[in-house]
Design a protein that fits this description.
The chain is mainly alpha-helical. The protein contains 12 helices and no strands. α5 packs across α8. The longest helix has 31 residues.
């Protein structure tokens, strides 16, 4: 039964990632429901999300290939931040992480719900920030490092936070932004998964079942994406995410 739950959750999570994002809101709780301890569930969720990041980055490669300098800087910061986030997670007990989960979910759901609005607001004002970008490159680097530490610690909501960051950095081309977002997410997750694997924190059996579902759901949803209203999917994810967050607070999980 646990395998069926994980397969279906992976399928639904992969489909959501293709259509609107928010797949971790389904996969992570399913891993907990299947009896995977909180720290391991979080590490395994990062592992399950990794193939989607890498394949997505490959799909956008032509859009970001001309940004070599930016790619190297972003990937370098992402590797450092992802490692620090993973290390902090491994120094956290299951009890401490369980107490943090409701707050992390609340943050991720809020970012998912309002990240698009913030992204558009920042994009409209990107020209106004030109001088600030030049003067504040160090601040932007520290901000990206903090975001990547969050991604290494708790993967949910990372993509939408990165889109807002890229808008703040002055990017306006949506394809470049999505490509860079996926390259950064891939870098964060690769180093985090490697650290989790060395620590033995990944439940490989549960993770591989979830990966099969994620890849299958993502592929089929991408083929059917034009038939499904994106706004309806986003509304579902937000309502579901809010309900899930409330449940985490009430249950104390």
């Amino acid at each position: 039964m646990d395998l069926v739950i994980l397969l279906l959750a992976g399928f639904a999570g992969g489909a959501l990632n293709s259509l609107a994002g928010g797949g971790s809101f389904i996969v992570f709780p399913a891993l907990l429901l299947a009896g995977v301890p909180p720290i391991s569930a979080n590490a395994t969720n990062t592992f399950a999300a990794l193939p989607g990041y890498i394949s997505g980055a490959a799909g956008y490669w032509r859009d970001v290939a001309g940004q070599k300098r930016r790619l190297l800087i972003y990937a370098g910061i992402a590797l450092v931040g992802g490692y620090i986030g993973a290390e902090v997670l491994l120094m956290t007990s299951d009890e401490q992480f369980s107490a943090l989960v409701p707050w992390l979910m609340a943050f991720a759901v809020t970012a998912f719900a309002f990240g698009g609005m913030l992204n558009r607001w920042l994009a409209r004002r990107s020209g106004e920030h030109a001088r600030l970008r030049i003067a504040g490159l160090g601040v932007l680097g520290i901000l990206l490092l903090a975001i990547c530490i969050y991604g290494g610690f708790f993967n949910a909501g990372l993509g939408i936070i990165l889109l807002a960051y890229l808008a703040l950095s002055g990017l306006t081309n949506v394809h470049q932004m999505n490509g860079l977002k996926l390259v950064i997410s891939s870098s964060v997750s690769v180093i985090a998964v490697a650290r989790f694997a060395l620590n033995g924190s990944i439940d490989w059996g549960a993770g591989l079942v979830a990966v099969v579902g994620v890849v299958t759901g993502g592929y089929l949803a991408a083929r059917l994406a034009h038939r499904i209203p994106g706004t309806a999917i986003r509304a579902f994810v937000i309502v579901y995410g809010v309900g899930l967050t409330i449940w985490f607070f009430v249950s104390g999980t």
